[in-house]
Amino acid sequence: MGTAGERGRFVVFEGGESVGKSTQAAWLATRQGAELTFEPGGTRLGQELRRLLLDGAGARLDILSEALLMAADRAQHVAETIRPALEAGRDLVCDRYIGSSLAYQGYGRGLDVPTVRLLSEVATGGLWPDLIVLLDMDPQRARVRGTGGSDRFEAMGMDFHRRVRAGYLELASADPARWTVVDADRSAAEVRDDIAALVAERLGWA
Ligand code: TYD
User: Fold this and answer.
1) Do the Cβ atoms of 56 and 1 come closer than 8 Å?
2) What is the pLDDT of residues 161-186, one digit of tens each?
3) What is the pLDDT of residues 60-89, one digit of tens each?
4) Closest CA to 25 of 131, 103, 105
């Protein structure tokens, strides 16, 4: 918890499919007594948007519509959950955020990355995380160890997932003050130890 009167800290986990993001986000939130949330679908309205975005039935969704729906989900999530928590001084851990739109809709789908960034800037009022942890892993290896789900993104080919990974790495190297990259192709315990060390260093979270 942040000290009374101070804004809470905002940490985001990013990465491709089946890299262990949700497990690590949940672990950190519990350890830190932080609120845990996720995108898409972190609000009631967002649950509806998530269904449209991930269901096979939405397979014909235009890619710009997809980006706008992700941004709408994010706007609602910031307004309803993220900003109120941070302003009340509560720390917050979020599973995916702006970086997912840049990596998936920008680098993955091929939309203009600055345009995708602008949509998220508008949706969030420019609210960026204090720290973004990128769990990086070869998507082919992640697929082997994954649950084999088949939502609209999981069903995309390896080329798509390679572009997403490369996009994430480019985003992280362009903004090292905000992003940090963790090698996710190791045991959950090893990854967790790295995360513990880096939140201690970056945020003073013991
Ligand atoms: P998530 O529930 O985190 O799935 P997973 O556990 O497989 O990572 O996210 C659902 C999917 O939505 C995931 O494939 C990434 C995609 N996504 C985007 O394409 N853009 C976005 O802005 C967000 C938040 C998610």
Assistant:
1) no
2) 999 999 999 999 999 999 999 999 99
3) 899 999 999 999 999 999 999 999 999 999
4) 131
Residue 4 pLDDT? 58
For residue 43, with 0-12 CB atoms within 10 Å meaning exposed, 13-18 middle and 19 or more buried, which class applies?
Answer: buried
For ligand 1, whether the C-beta of 39 sits within 6 Å is yes
How far apart CA 88 and CA 105 sit, in angstroms, is 32
pLDDT digits (tens, 9 = 90+) for 92-126: 999 999 999 999 999 999 999 999 999 999 999 99
Give the pair of three-digit tokens for residue 24.
Answer: 């690590």
pLDDT value at position 147?
72
Supply the residue whose CA is at minimum distance from atom 13 of ligand 1.
153
Please give the Cα distance from 102 to 171 (Å, whole number): 8
* Centre of ligand 1 from the C-alpha of residue 96, in Å: 7
Whether residue 153 has its Cβ less than 6 Å from ligand 1: yes
Report the atom number in ligand 1 closest to the C-alpha of 39: 24
- Give the global pTM: 0.96
Pair 50, 74: CB distance under 8 Å:
no
What tokens were used for 162?
A: 């390679």
Nearest to 97 by CA among 42, 44, 150, 157: 42
- Decide whether any atom of ligand 1 lies within 6 Å of the 165 Cβ: no
Task: Tell me how crowded residue 114 is: count the other CB atoms within 10 A of its CB.
Answer: 10
Please say if the pLDDT value at position 56 is more than 70: yes
